[in-house]
C-alpha cells in the first residue's frame, strides 16, 4: 500500500445503500465508486442517485483539498479531505453568510451530502481493500471529469496494484454545476443499470449453460455497453480503461 | 463447519457469509476461518466453489491480512487452487487467477529461502502453466486476470534495479534467488519471463486484440518500465509502436471511435507517468515526441469525424483521404512498423529547389514555401495540426536547425518569390498532373469573399433580446452600492459628461437616454404573426424605468428626475420637427404616472418628495391638484402646504397657480387658514384682504406683513373656539 499517507478511520464513513438491510450480491453483481474533484457536487449527486437505486456505492475526490466557492473567486473556502465533516462545513458556512451560501446552492448541497456520508474522502488516501462497513473494493470507478480520470488511472499505476484485481475506470464528463450534476447523475445511474443488466445476463448464461465458459463475466461487454450508453447520452463524453487495484 | 445434517445450500451460504463478515470486522480470525472453509471450497456444489474462489482471492489481496499470515496460508492453498483452476466457470477462474497473481511472489520468495520445497515449487509451476494455457482461450474477464498474473511472473522472474538505494525489499525479483539454488535456475527463469513479456506486449500489436485487453495491458506496463530497467527499452518500444488509431480504417462507429480515444488516452497517461517518475531518464526525448505524434493523430481523427458529419457529398474528400492513407506509409526513417504518422514536416536539410522549375505559372502560398521533395510531404496539410503544436514544432526546429541550412532555404524561397514577382502576369496553368495545385488555383481566382448578410432576426426574438439587455442594464445599476444622493453628485458641475465612466451614474444616463434620445423614433409597432401587436421598445424601457423608480422612489429619486428631464428635453426637441408635431408628449404623462404611484406612500415629512417636485422639469396642473388633495389629508397637510410653499418660493413660474390653490383652500378649509395665511400674506395679500371667512368671522385688511403677528392670536382664538 504505497501512496497512502494519512490514516483514516476504517468504517467511519457510512455507505447509505448498505444501511437498509442485506444487499445480496446476486441483486447487485457490480459495486460502484464515484469520483470528482472535491467529493462534493458531482460525485455526491451520483452517490446519492446510485444509493437511492440501492447500488453499493462509495465516493471520493481527487483534488488536493476540498474547495468550495467563497464570497469572491479568489477567496474559496478550503477544507481538508478525510477530516472536516460535511456537517461542520454546513454549519460554518451557514454562520458565515447564510444568504450567500443558500443563494449559490452550497448549503443545499452540503445538507444533502451530510445525510449521505460523514465527510469528503480523498481518492489517493483510499486504502483499497480495507473493509468499509461491507466492502473494501469496487468493480467500476466512475469519474466525473477527465482530469479526475487521469488522476485515478495515474494513481492506480503508482499503487502497483497490490490487490491484482481488475477494475473498470470510466469517465463521464460533467460540468461542475448543480444542474449538470443532476443530469450527469442520471446518466451515471443509466450506465450503472446497463452494466448491471449486462453482468446479470452473463451470469445467467453461465448458470444456464453451465459447461464451457462463453463470455461469462461483464468485462468483455463493457466496450459495447459503453458505446450504447454514449449514443444515448452524447452530451456526457465518456472515457474508459481497464486498470487494477 | 460442514454440519452433519447437510443443511440447505442457502443456509450454508449464509453461514459462509457470516464467517466472511466476521473476518471483515476482525481480520485476526482470517487464517482460522480460511483454513476452516478450505474443505467446503472444493465441495461438489458449484455455489460453494464460487464463493470459495472469491474468498481466496479476497484473502490474498486484502491489506488487512499480514504478509506473514498470507505466506503461510498460501502454502496451504495451492492444492485447492490447483483443483479450482480446472473449473469451466469464468467467475471462479477469474478469482483463482487473481489469487495466483498474489500468491506467486509469496511462493517464489518462500522457495528461495527453502531450497528443498520441490513439491511446492512443482505445484506452483503447474498452476502457472495451467494459467498460461488458459490465457488464450479464456473469456475476457479471465484474460484480464491472466494479464495481471503474467505481469507478476515477469516482475518476479526478471532483474530489478542494480542501484541498492532504489531496491524495495518487499519487491521479489531474480535478485532474491540465492546462488546455486537447486530448483530455481536463473537463466531459464529469465528466459521464461522474456518470453512471457513478449507475449504480453504482442497483445498491443495483434490484429484482433480487444480494447479491454489492450488497456489492461497498458495499465500493467508502468511498473515494469519503472522497476525493471533492463526490460524498459523493449516495453517502451512496444508501447510506442502501438497505434491506438489502427481502427481508423474500419467503419467509424461510436464504439470504434470511443475505443480509439480510450486507448490513446491510456497510452498518454502511461507515458506521462513514466516521464514524471524519471524526468531526466534516457527515454524522455523519444517519449515526448511520441506524445506529440499521438496528439496529431488524435486531431486527425476528430477532423475525419467532423468531415464525415459535415459533408457527405464532398467529392474532394478523395484527395485528403488519399493523403491520409498514404501518410502512414510515408518515409519513416528509423523503424518501419510504426503505424503512427511520421513527425510533421520541418525544414529538413533538403537542397534548395532549382528556381526555374517553379516559376512557370501561378502558384499557391503552400507551393511557394514548400521545399520538400517528397510528394507525400508536400501534400501534408499543416492546417490540420492544432495551432499550439505548430508553434512548438516551429520553435523546436528553429532552435535545432543549422544556420546555413536555414539560410539556403530562405534564399531559395526568396529567389522563387522574386521570380514570381517578375513574371507577375499569370500564365495558363501547365498540366502538372497535381490535383492539389488545380484546387489551389481555383482558390486563388475566387476574388474577394464577402460574408453573406445575416438572417433577419424575427421580431419576437428581437424583442426578447431587447428586453434581456434592458434587464441586464438594470441589474448592473442594482449591483452598484447605494450611496447617498449628496455624495453621488458629481463635483464636475457643467463640465461633467454624461456616461463618461461606467459607474452608476453613467449607466443611469445610458438607460434614461435610451428611450428619449436613442430609440425615441422607434414607435412602429412590431408585426407579429397574428396581426399587429403594438409594442414600442421605448415605451417598454419607460415602463421598466417607471417600475424601477417607483419601487424605491427615495433611493432612485435622482434617476427619476434625470429621466423626466430627459423626457422633457426630448418633448421639446421633437416638437420642433415635422413628424414630432403629432407625437404625444411623454414628460407630463410619465410625471403623473410616477406621482400617482408614489403619492400613497408619502410621509408627513417627506423632504425628498419636496425636492423631487422642485427638480422635475415641468409641473403639470394635475400634480398641483394632487398636492392640494395632500393638504386635505390631515396626516399629510403639512407636507402639502410645505410643498406649495416651496414651489411658490423656488419656482416662480408656478407661483401664481400655487397661490390659486392656496387661496381656494383658504376659502374652503377653515382648519388650514392659519397655516396658509402666512403664505398668502407674502405672495397674495389681496386674497386675505377681500376674504370674508365662510364661518362669518371677518378678517381685517392688513397692509404689510409686519402686523401679521398681531392678528394671529385673534385668528387662533377663532379657530380654536
From TrEMBL, chain A:
Q: Which InterPro entries does the entry link to? A: RNA_pol_II_suA
User: Which EC numbers characterise this protein's activity in its record?
Assistant: 3.1.3.16
Q: Catalytic activity annotated for this protein? A: O-phospho-L-threonyl-[protein] + H2O = L-threonyl-[protein] + phosphate; O-phospho-L-seryl-[protein] + H2O = L-seryl-[protein] + phosphate
Q: Does the keyword Hydrolase apply?
A: yes
Localization terms from the record: Nucleus
Ranges in a coiled coil: 189-216
Q: Which UniProt keywords apply?
A: Coiled coil, Hydrolase, mRNA processing, Nucleus, Protein phosphatase
Q: Which residues form the signal peptide?
A: none
Q: Name one GO cellular component term.
A: mRNA cleavage and polyadenylation specificity factor complex
GO annotation, biological process: mRNA 3'-end processing
Class in the EC hierarchy, top level: hydrolase
* Start and end residues of each stretch annotated as Disordered: 1-20
Gene Ontology terms, MF aspect:
RNA polymerase II CTD heptapeptide repeat phosphatase activity
One Pfam short name = Ssu72
Its biological function?
Answer: Component of the cleavage and polyadenylation factor (CPF) complex, which plays a key role in polyadenylation-dependent pre-mRNA 3'-end formation and cooperates with cleavage factors including the CFIA complex and NAB4/CFIB. SSU72 is required for 3'-end formation of snoRNAs.
- Family statement: Belongs to the SSU72 phosphatase family.
Summarize the subunit comment: Component of the cleavage and polyadenylation factor (CPF) complex.
Q: What is this protein called?
A: RNA polymerase II subunit A C-terminal domain phosphatase SSU72
Q: List the source organism.
A: Ascodesmis nigricans
TrEMBL record, chain B:
Arranged from A to Z, the UniProt key words for this protein are: mRNA processing, Nucleus
Q: Does the keyword Cell division apply?
A: no
> What is one Pfam family matched by this protein?
SYMPK_PTA1_N
This protein's record includes keyword Coiled coil:
no
Q: Where in the cell is it found?
A: Nucleus
Please give the chief subcellular localization of this protein: nucleus
Q: Which residues form the Symplekin/Pta1 N-terminal domain?
A: 90-307
Q: Where is the composition biased (Pro residues)?
A: 330-354
Query: Which Gene Ontology cellular component annotation is one that this UniProt entry carries?
Result: mRNA cleavage and polyadenylation specificity factor complex
The annotated region (Disordered) lies at: 302-355
Quote the biased-composition stretches of kind Basic and acidic residues, using this chain's numbering.
Answer: 318-327
Could you state one GO biological process linked to this protein? mRNA processing
**What is the official name of this protein in its record?**
Symplekin/Pta1 N-terminal domain-containing protein
Q: Which organism does this sequence originate in?
A: Ascodesmis nigricans
Amino acid at each position: 500500500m504505497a501512496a497512502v499517507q494519512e490514516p483514516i478511520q476504517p468504517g467511519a464513513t457510512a455507505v447509505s445503500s448498505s444501511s437498509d438491510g442485506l444487499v445480496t450480491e446476486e441483486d447487485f453483481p457490480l459495486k460502484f465508486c464515484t469520483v470528482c474533484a472535491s467529493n462534493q457536487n458531482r460525485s455526491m449527486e451520483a452517490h446519492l442517485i446510485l444509493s437511492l437505486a440501492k447500488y453499493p456505492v462509495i465516493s471520493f475526490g481527487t483534488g488536493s483539498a476540498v474547495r468550495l466557492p467563497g464570497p469572491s473567486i479568489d477567496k474559496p473556502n478550503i477544507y481538508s479531505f478525510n477530516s472536516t465533516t460535511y456537517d461542520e462545513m454546513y454549519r460554518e458556512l451557514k454562520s458565515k453568510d447564510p444568504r450567500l451560501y443558500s443563494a449559490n446552492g452550497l448549503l443545499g448541497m452540503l445538507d444533502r451530502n451530510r445525510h449521505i456520508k460523514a465527510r469528503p474522502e480523498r481518492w489517493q488516501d483510499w486504502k483499497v481493500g480495507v473493509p468499509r462497513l461491507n466492502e473494501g473494493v469496487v468493480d467500476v470507478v466512475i469519474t466525473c471529469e477527465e482530469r479526475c480520470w487521469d488522476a485515478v488511472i495515474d494513481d492506480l499505476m503508482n499503487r502497483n496494484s497490490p490487490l491484482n484485481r481488475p477494475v473498470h475506470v470510466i469517465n463521464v464528463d460533467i460540468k461542475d454545476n448543480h444542474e449538470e450534476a443532476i443530469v450527469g447523475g442520471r446518466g451515471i445511474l443509466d450506465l450503472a443499470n446497463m452494466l448491471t443488466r449486462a453482468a446479470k445476463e452473463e451470469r445467467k448464461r453461465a448458470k444456464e449453460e453451465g459447461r464451457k465458459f462463453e463470455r461469462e463475466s461483464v468485462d468483455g461487454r463493457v466496450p459495447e455497453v459503453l458505446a450504447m450508453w454514449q449514443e444515448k447520452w452524447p452530451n456526457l463524453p465518456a472515457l474508459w480503461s481497464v486498470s487494477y487495484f | 463447519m460442514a454440519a452433519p445434517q447437510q443443511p440447505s445450500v442457502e443456509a450454508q451460504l449464509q453461514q459462509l457469509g457470516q464467517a466472511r463478515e466476521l473476518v471483515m470486522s476482525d481480520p485476526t480470525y482470517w487464517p482460522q476461518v480460511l483454513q476452516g472453509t478450505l474443505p467446503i471450497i472444493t465441495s461438489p456444489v458449484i455455489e460453494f466453489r464460487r464463493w470459495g474462489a472469491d474468498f481466496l482471492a479476497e484473502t490474498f489481496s486484502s491489506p488487512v491480512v499480514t504478509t506473514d499470515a498470507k505466506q503461510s496460508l498460501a502454502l496451504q492453498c495451492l492444492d485447492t487452487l490447483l483443483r479450482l483452476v480446472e473449473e469451466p466457470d469464468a467467475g471462479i477462474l477469474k478469482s483463482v487467477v487473481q489469487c495466483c497473481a498474489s500468491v506467486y511472489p509469496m511462493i517464489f520468495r518462500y522457495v528461495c529461502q527453502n531450497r528443498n520445497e520441490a513439491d511446492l515449487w512443482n505445484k506452483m509451476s503447474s498452476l502457472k502453466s495451467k494459467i498460461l494455457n488458459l490465457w488464450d482461450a479464456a473469456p475476457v474477464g479471465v484474460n484480464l486476470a491472466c494479464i495481471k498474473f503474467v505481469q507478476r511472473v515477469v516482475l518476479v522472474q526478471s532483474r530489478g534495479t542494480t542501484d541498492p538505494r532504489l531496491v524495495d525489499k518487499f519487491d521479489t525479483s531474480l535478485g532474491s534467488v540465492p546462488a546455486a539454488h537447486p530448483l530455481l535456475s536463473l537463466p531459464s527463469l529469465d528466459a521464461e519471463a522474456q518470453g512471457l513479456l513478449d507475449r504480453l506486449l504482442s497483445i498491443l500489436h495483434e490484429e484482433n486484440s480487444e480494447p479491454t485487453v489492450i488497456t489492461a495491458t497498458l495499465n500493467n506496463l508502468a511498473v515494469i518500465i519503472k522497476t525493471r530497467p533492463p526490460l524498459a527499452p523493449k516495453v517502451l518500444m512496444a508501447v510506442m509502436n502501438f497505434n491506438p488509431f489502427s481502427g481508423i480504417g474500419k467503419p467509424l462507429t461510436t464504439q470504434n471511435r470511443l475505443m480509439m480515444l480510450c486507448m490513446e488516452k491510456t497510452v498518454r497517461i502511461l507515458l506521462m507517468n513514466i516521464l514524471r517518475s524519471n524526468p531526466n531518464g534516457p527515454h524522455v526525448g523519444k517519449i515526448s515526441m511520441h506524445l506529440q505524434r499521438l496528439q496529431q493523430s488524435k486531431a486527425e481523427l476528430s477532423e475525419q469525424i467532423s468531415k464525415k458529419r459535415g459533408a457527405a457529398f464532398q467529392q474532394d474528400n478523395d484527395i485528403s483521404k488519399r493523403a491520409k492513407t498514404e501518410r502512414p506509409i510515408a518515409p519513416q526513417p528509423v523503424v518501419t512498423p510504426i503505424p503512427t504518422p511520421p513527425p510533421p514536416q520541418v525544414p529538413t536539410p533538403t537542397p534548395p529547389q532549382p528556381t526555374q522549375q517553379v516559376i512557370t505559372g501561378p502558384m499557391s502560398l503552400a507551393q511557394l514555401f514548400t521545399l520538400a521533395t517528397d510528394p507525400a510531404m508536400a501534400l501534408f496539410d499543416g492546417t490540420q495540426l492544432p495551432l499550439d503544436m505548430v508553434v512548438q514544432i516551429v520553435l523546436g526546429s528553429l532552435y535545432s536547425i543549422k544556420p546555413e541550412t536555414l539560410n539556403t532555404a530562405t534564399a531559395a524561397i526568396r529567389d522563387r518569390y522574386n521570380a514570381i514577382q517578375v513574371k507577375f502576369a499569370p500564365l495558363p496553368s501547365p498540366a502538372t498532373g497535381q490535383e492539389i495545385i488545380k484546387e489551389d488555383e481555383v482558390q486563388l481566382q475566387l476574388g474577394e469573399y464577402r460574408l453573406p448578410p445575416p438572417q433577419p432576426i424575427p421580431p419576437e426574438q428581437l424583442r426578447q433580446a431587447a428586453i434581456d439587455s434592458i434587464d441586464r442594464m438594470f441589474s448592473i445599476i442594482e449591483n452598484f452600492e447605494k450611496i447617498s444622493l449628496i455624495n453621488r453628485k458629481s463635483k464636475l458641475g457643467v463640465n461633467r459628461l454624461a456616461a463618461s465612466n461606467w459607474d452608476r451614474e453613467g449607466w443611469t444616463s445610458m438607460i434614461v437616454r435610451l428611450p428619449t434620445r436613442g430609440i425615441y423614433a422607434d414607435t412602429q409597432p412590431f408585426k407579429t404573426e397574428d396581426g399587429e401587436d403594438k409594442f414600442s421598445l421605448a415605451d417598454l424601457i419607460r415602463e421598466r424605468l417607471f417600475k424601477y423608480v417607483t419601487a424605491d422612489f427615495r433611493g432612485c429619486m435622482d434617476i427619476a428626475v434625470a429621466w423626466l428631464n430627459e423626457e422633457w428635453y426630448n418633448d421639446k426637441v421633437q416638437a420642433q420637427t415635422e413628424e414630432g408635431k403629432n407625437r404625444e408628449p411623454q414628460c407630463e404623462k410619465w410625471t403623473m404616472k410616477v406621482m400617482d404611484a408614489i403619492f400613497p406612500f408619502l410621509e408627513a415629512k417627506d423632504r425628498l418628495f419636496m425636492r423631487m417636485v422642485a427638480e422635475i422639469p415641468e409641473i403639470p396642473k394635475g400634480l398641483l391638484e394632487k398636492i392640494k388633495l395632500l393638504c386635505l389629508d390631515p396626516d399629510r397637510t403639512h407636507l402639502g402646504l410645505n410643498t406649495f410653499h416651496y414651489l411658490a418660493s423656488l419656482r416662480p413660474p408656478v407661483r401664481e397657480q400655487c397661490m390659486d390653490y392656496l387661496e381656494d383652500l383658504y376659502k374652503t378649509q377653515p382648519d388650514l387658514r392659519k397655516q396658509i395665511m402666512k403664505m398668502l400674506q407674502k405672495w397674495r395679500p389681496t386674497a386675505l384682504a377681500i376674504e370674508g371667512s365662510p364661518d362669518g368671522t371677518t378678517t381685517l385688511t392688513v397692509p404689510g406683513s409686519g402686523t401679521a403677528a398681531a392678528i394671529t392670536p385673534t385668528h387662533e382664538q377663532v379657530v380654536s373656539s
